[in-house]
User: What shape does this take?
Amino acid sequence: MLMNPVEFFRTLQKKECCECGQHMEEQAESYFMECDRCLAKKEE
Assistant: This one.
């Protein structure tokens, strides 16, 4: 049986930073796997 697309996206797990494990706010067209804080540390 096929799942309703709205229900599918509602039940997806929240995206987590692969560096610190913090939950990240999803953004359209963003493929970053690190949160802003961890990305800032890499630039330093």
